[in-house]
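Input:
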Amino acid sequence: MATRPESLDPATVPTWEEVADNYGRFIYSLSYRLVGNHHDAQDLTQEVLLRVRRGLVNYKPGNFEGWLSRITTNAFLDRVRKQQRRPTVSMPEEAERFLVGSPGIEAEMEAADLPDDLQRLLADLPPDYRAPVVLKDVLGYSYEEIADHLEIPLGTVRSRIHRGRSRLKEALSV
Amino acid sequence: MSDTPSTGWHPEEPWEQEIASLLGALPTVEPPPGFLSSAVDHRPLFAGRVTGALFSASMVALTVGIVVGALEQPAVTPSVDALRARHSSMVLDLFAGRSTDEGLFSALDPQAGPPVSLPHDFESHGYVEADRLRQAVFARKDEAVSIFSEPGRVDWSGLPSGNLESISGVTAWIDPDRKVAIVQADGAAITIVGLDATEVGEVLASMPAGEDGFARRFRDATAALTTELGFPGS
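Output:
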């Protein structure tokens, strides 16, 4: 959960400037984990900051990080849906490059450039699996919080996280 | 997504906890230097609060449109080697007395705006435009500097190895031999070739004063400069 920032006073609504200054890195890091590259992370971060600006008017003091996470993941999924309506180019299967039979996940990852390679595997997950996995395992949200963020049933959240992890495990075990 | 919700909850298996642990250990991803400040630099566009009935819905829509437009500028990675070569070629012609193609390289019209002179006695010698790249050349005796402008926002992560430095409050990429500097201005990536990094600071500081600090001053000045030169993004 290295990406979660220090909370501001939860009883007050921060200004947009405070959000950008204090949570910009958090938004960017989460964006990167979701999209998998810096270029798209920059675009997503800017989109999130726009949405934050528009949404602050109606924000009720509470879990601000959760609110930002919700905006970021929803902005990400909106982008995915837009892209799915356009022609896409397949990305190379980077995972196969380094995942040649070895005894265990930990050993595999130690032998590889762990953060970058794990990020590539994460980016290969279908977006609907990737978002809940990132929220759960990277940011540490509960299943209930994720269900609330993504507005999907709790059982679906559990299922997608389980399947997302399962795909990661398969990729690591090839 | 074709998955169906699971019908029951089951505890996480050890391998799931292992995956979760690996993901949880991923470090924070830092944005490229200057990216957040660049995004935050748009705050004047956001700063005005829409209060009462002073602004019509159309004004709000217009404002949002402008903001979206400003933030959706394409990423651009100035090609340092190509720009350096372009500068060298232009300068060789300039100092060899060879006339450059008048259609491409023309003297600034003094009536079109102040032909910008830079500190250290650099004077403008003209500008050239090709595709979306504009080049303004300034020279003194046997030295010259080019200022390139490309519309978009700098993709800092795409630049080659160099130093990212704060020059009087402006984030600048400086190449190892300290003769190329790249800065972000409103709507354009500005590449300065031929000046020492310290001189870049002096050039930037010499630009017209704005109301709130150097960064603002530089943005205003660059906008004025690019407007006078007819650069896009101004």
